[in-house]
Each structure stands twice: as structure tokens, then as C-alpha cells.
Amino acid sequence: MVIAPKKEAKKLRGIIPAHKFILINLCTVILIIFFPFKTFPQCPSSREFYFKLLAIEKNNDLSAGEKLSGIFRLQKAFDQCRLNNDSVYAQMLHRIGVLQFSTGKLNEAISYTLASIKINTSGKKESNKKLAVKSYYNLGYYYAGLNRLKDALNYYDLCIETGNFFKDSLTLINVIAARNRKAHIYYQTGDFQRAIEESALGLKTAYDIKNSVITIDLFNEQAQAYAAVQQIKNAVTDINKASVLIAKGDYEALANNYKIKAAISEAGNNYIEAIAYYKKAIQVRSKASDPDLSDDYLDAGNALRREVIRKNTGDFSKPISYYTESLILAQKSGNTFAAVKASNNLAAISFRTKKYSAALTGYHKSLLNLVLPFKNNNELHNPTYFQCNSISDKNFLSLLLANKTECLLYL
């Protein structure tokens, strides 16, 4: 005879004392609430969690926010299962970091990526040091986005150091990309010789794995650094090598190529040719919706401003237009450094045209955006020494402070 659930319960009560029966039920409820996966057989394995993570990542119908919510749910389930924090869990944290960055939450992105690295560099059986290479690269990129260039360089170095233990192409691409990013930072901060050296090291590895995409980027970086130190012949050689490798439809690579050609033309004092190349770069990059578009407008504005000064026309309307567009695009994409430079250059034009009050406001806003711990809106105040410590590009900071000081003398 099959006993119905209610009758079965009554039968049990007849065997077990009432207070113990209540206690058993209470314990069962507690287990369901607090240990839903660990207690019952439906708790997925680490491998199954990995495939669930992969399914979320590959679902192109989901927005970044929806993917983030999905991975957060996976992380919570993983925690409830009380599985060991292995490389799969680290990959979840890494992906959360990537998605946090894509939604503009840089500090959260850094926090989750650091947690992922901690697991994968622990040396434990379930860790995977190779996966930490990409996380180190991402940290460098995130810190560069915050204009903490010293921290960015440190993490790019860790990416290179860790990645060089492995010989597979996928890992080495991160190593080469880190070299390329380091070269770009050195170029940005005026250390052109080190930019050339880093590019050369990256090119050596890029040749070994025959990756044309990253090779183009490295030739571009090296070419613009050569142009900056007036080694025009070397710059032209590199940019021509890059041009040959560009695939049809690769708008980003083509835009970068035009931009470097513009820099080479500027180095040779051919401003008309330089401006024409910058305009081509902007036109091509617009097709790719690339965030570096703000840098193109900034560079074109610089070339236009120098041409106005060289010809002594006094008409800064075109450079102002380009700087303003650069500032708008940089703010939208989170390119802090480009935004600060555009703001500073607009202030410099105000100063040159004797609009000292507007210049002071522009310089102060630039400081507020550059030195994030500095929050004082009073234009007569400057950031403290300790607040300035986090800024890697001390040369640009010094220039900005000097510009503001000079402006105050005219008020």
C-alpha cells in the first residue's frame, strides 16, 4: 500500500516525539536556505560552472549589464556550493572586472581583477598562473584609464614577466600587447627612447609568432617615437612597413597609420600635410567607433594651433573646434588624459588671446580632472604634494601648474 504524504507524516509523528520532529523540520529548512547547492545533488561541479560562464560570455543577445548580472548569479551560486576557489572562480572574477570596466566602474574592475590574480598566482593545485597573464594586462589598461601610469607600467611588467614563462601564441599576444602599451605610455610622457626600445622588444616576439595585427601597432609606436627624436628616415621606414600589413577593412589600423604619418609630417614641419593626414585618420576611425577618436581630434587641434602660431593669423577658431570635440568624446569614452589635455589646450588659447579669467577656470578644471583626490573648486587653491603623488606624468602636471601660476599673474 502506498502511503499518502500527509499520512506518512502522521505515521512519523507516531514514531518520533513531537519536539524532535519539529526540530528535524527546522533543520531541513535551514539547510535549504543557507546551503541550497551543497546539501542536494543538483549543485554543479566546477567544470559545469565553467560551461555556464562560457554560455553567458558567448551570448551576443545579452548587454554588458545583463552579462554582469548573470555572472554575479553564478558567483553567488559557486559560493553557496562551497567549492574551492579555483581557476574557474578566478575566471568569473576576471570577467566581472572586464564588464565592470565596460560600464565605467574602473575601481570595481581593478578590485575583482586583483582577486582573480590572487587565486591564479596562489600556487595551489586548482590555480592557473597562465590565466593571470591576461589579468595583469587588464590591470595595466585599467590603471592607464585612471591616469595612474606608474601603476599601469608595473602591471604591464608583471604581465611580461609572467607571460614569458609560457610559449603559446595566445599568452604571448598579451606579452606583446603589454610591450606596445608600455611604448605608448613612454611616448605620451616624452620618454621617446624607451618607447623605441619597448617597441623593438615587442616586434621581436611578434615576428616569432607571426602576428601581423600587433606588429602593425608596434611599427606605428616605434615610427612616432622616431619622428619625435627627428629620426625621420627610420620613422618613414617603420610606417611604410606597417602600411603593407594593414588588411582591407581594418579601419582602426588604417586610422593609426594616417595618424603616425601626420606626426612624421609635423616633425618635418609640413603642417598642411599633417593636418590632411589627421583629417583622414578621423574620417576612417569614425567608421570603427573607436574611443581613440578623442586623441585624433586632440592631435589635429595641436597641429592646427601650431599652424596658426606659425603664420601669426590669430584665428584659433579651428583648433578650438577640434579641442572641444576632443573634450566631448574623451568625457564620453572615459579617456581622462585626453580630456585633461584638451581642457588645458583650450585654456592655453584663452590665455594667448588675453582671456585670463577663462584661462584660469580652464586650468583649474584640468587640475580637478587630473588630480582626482583634489576636490577644491576655489581657483586660488592647488593640490597638495601628497595629492599629486599618484600622478605619473609629473612633467605634464608641472606644466599645468606653471600655466595656472602664470595666468594668476595677469589677473
Q: How is the topology of this model organized?
A:
Blueprint: H1 5-15, H2 18-34, H3 46-58, H4 64-81, H5 87-102, H6 106-120, H7 129-145, H8 149-163, H9 169-188, H10 192-209, H11 212-228, H12 232-245, H13 251-267, H14 271-286, H15 293-311, H16 317-333, H17 336-352, H18 356-370, H19 385-388, H20 394-409
Helix pairs in contact: 3-4, 3-5, 4-5, 5-6, 5-7, 6-7, 7-8, 7-9, 8-9, 9-10, 9-11, 10-11, 11-12, 11-13, 12-13, 13-14, 14-15, 15-16, 15-17, 16-17, 17-18, 18-20
Percent of residues in beta strands?
under 5%
Please report the total strand number as a whole number: 0
> Which quaternary structure do these chains form?
single chain
Average pLDDT for all residues:
87
- Ranges with pLDDT <50 over ≥5 residues? 1-15, 24-41
Give me the number of helical elements: 20
Backbone shape: globular
Gap from first CA to last CA:
100 Å
- Helix-strand sequence: HHHHHHHHHHHHHHHHHHHH
**What Rg is obtained from the alpha carbons, in whole angstroms?**
28 Å
Description:
The protein has 411 residues and is mostly helical. It is 76% helix and 0% strand. The protein has 20 helices and no strands. It has helices at 5-15, 18-34, 46-58, 64-81, 87-102, 106-120, 129-145, 149-163, 169-188, 192-209, 212-228, 232-245, 251-267, 271-286, 293-311, 317-333, 336-352, 356-370, 385-388, 394-409. α15 (293-311) packs antiparallel against α16. The longest helix has 20 residues, at 169-188.
